[in-house]
Write a structure and sequence with these properties.
The protein is of the alpha/beta class. The chain has eight helices and eight strands, in the order E-E-H-E-H-H-E-H-E-H-E-H-E-H-E-H. A six-stranded parallel β-sheet has the order 5-4-3-6-7-8. Strands 1-2 form a two-stranded antiparallel ribbon. The mean pLDDT is 95.
Length: 217
């Protein structure tokens, strides 16, 4: 740990894994999202293992869910994206996805948040846009987080980049992040590593560090 100007500056995963300053973010582990991931079972198992390690170590855990909204209250950007993802040429053919209370909107049943954990819903790719996540983390004196979930190339990379601009240290647990397109996901990881403001790790490395955490009162 580097120290300067009254600050402790973590530069490694081990230094960052302090439950007083790091949280775990579980990104979009929803039934409808996982159905589009080729290796969903592996991803769920790795995410569940990371969550259990975080709980054992006393780390705060936050879940994000992607929420669709009716076409009638969707703006041009959302409709344009929906047309691209659904491979449509007419906006009238767009089908709203991940509407609240729809089966695909729910978290995978193997990832059940505890009473001490929080779920935030969002309509954007960055977990920090339109949610209370930034406010809650800062109020808990959290300045870094590990992130797991899906999809690397769609939402996890934008969340990590946005977080770095907000002053957080994002730690991407690569083998606990699923992808719809492996090539795009690999480019996302390479881009994050090149930029240097995120750390990249894996389940085998971070889980023992999380388990050993334990927050002091």
């Amino acid at each position: 740990m580097q120290h300067g100007y009254g600050l402790g500056i973590p530069r490694t995963v081990e230094e960052a894994c302090d439950p007083r300053r790091l949280a775990l973010i579980v990104y979009d582990m929803q039934v409808g999202v996982l159905s589009q991931i080729p290796d969903a079972e592996r991803v769920v198992a790795n995410v569940a293992r990371t969550v259990e390690a975080a709980r054992a170590g006393g780390f705060r855990v936050f879940y994000l869910r992607h929420m669709g909204i009716p076409n009638e209250v969707s703006g041009a950007a959302r409709l344009r994206t929906a047309m691209t993802w659904q491979r449509l040429d007419r906006v009238a053919d767009v089908t709203p996805m991940f509407l609240r209370d729809s089966p695909g909107f729910e978290l995978d049943p193997r990832l059940k948040p505890s009473a001490a954990e929080m779920v935030f819903d969002k309509i954007t790719m960055s977990a920090f846009v339109g949610t209370p996540l930034d406010l809650v983390l800062r109020d808990c004196a959290i300045d870094s987080f590990a992130i797991v979930g899906v999809a690397m190339e769609v939402g996890i990379e934008p969340t990590a980049r946005h977080a770095a601009d907000l002053g957080y240290l994002p730690i991407v647990v690569a083998d606990a992040c699923g992808a719809g397109h492996q090539g795009a996901a690999q480019r996302s990881l390479e881009g994050l590593a090149f930029a240097g403001d995120s750390l990249i790790t894996d389940v085998e490395t971070i889980c023992p560090l999380l388990t050993a955490g334990r927050r002091g009162d």
